[in-house]
Design goal:
Elements: H1 2-6, E1 13-18, H2 25-36, E2 43-47, H3 51-64, H4 71-80, E3 86-90, E4 110-115, E5 125-128, H5 134-144, H6 151-164, E6 175-181, E7 190-195
Parallel strand pairs: 1-4, 1-5, 2-3, 3-4
Antiparallel strand pairs: 6-7
Length: about 200
């Protein structure tokens, strides 16, 4: 993704991460944004699960930028804004939503879309995100939580990834499971997650 967004193609950059729920699409996009935030003038995150949440997010941007009070005002502002902005549409899973209606119609700017819907590949460059191998999920969990590869941390991360791989990384910069209770009987493992502030 870094190379894709670094290339000056003279047109709008659109990148779609698609795949099953819980595969890590949002985490990949957020990690990219975290690593590349200095490259963008504005970063706009939009919950794309419903039309209402899209319109609310875009309306809030218009108000915060003092460019109006509607979703269309934000889209017009982005069309006229030739800085390197990034619009992130997260969880664009509903096939009834025409997401293209919410893309600024211009030849500049950057858009990332995460979706379970493979049809959205047609919007631009795309990558299929699948479940990670257990060893990769363990490694990512430790790196994301800034935990060293100690024997104890690896054991904890291994147990968590066995339960749910990427689903257990709720927000890797804020939380890390520090205690796991694995019952000797029963059907599932349980764990406590402690916030690290």
């Amino acid at each position: 993704m870094h190379q894709f967004f670094d290339t000056d193609s003279g047109k709008q950059h659109i990148y779609v991460l698609y795949g099953l729920g819980g595969a890590g699409k949002t985490q990949i996009a957020l990690k990219f944004i975290e690593e590349s935030s200095a490259n963008f003038s504005d970063i706009i995150l939009v919950d794309t699960s419903k039309v209402e949440t899209i319109e609310t997010a875009l309306r809030n941007i218009a108000v915060s930028k003092s460019v109006g009070n509607s979703a269309q005002d934000t889209l017009m502002w982005l069309r006229s804004n030739h800085n390197k902005w990034l619009l992130f549409f997260d969880n664009a899973d509903d096939p009834k939503i025409n997401l293209h209606d919410f893309f600024p119609q211009c030849n500049h700017g950057n858009i990332i879309v995460t979706s379970r819907n493979p049809e959205l590949r047609s919007y631009g460059a795309h990558t299929y995100v699948s479940d990670m191998e257990e060893v990769d999920a363990t490694s990512l969990l430790l790196r994301s939580a800034n935990k060293e590869n100690s024997e104890e941390n690896i054991k904890v991360a291994d147990e968590i990834t066995k339960v749910g791989y990427m689903n257990c990384i709720l927000h890797p910069t804020l939380i890390f499971p520090t205690e796991i209770v694995l019952p000797t009987t029963g059907y599932c493992a349980s764990w406590r997650i402690h916030l690290q502030v």
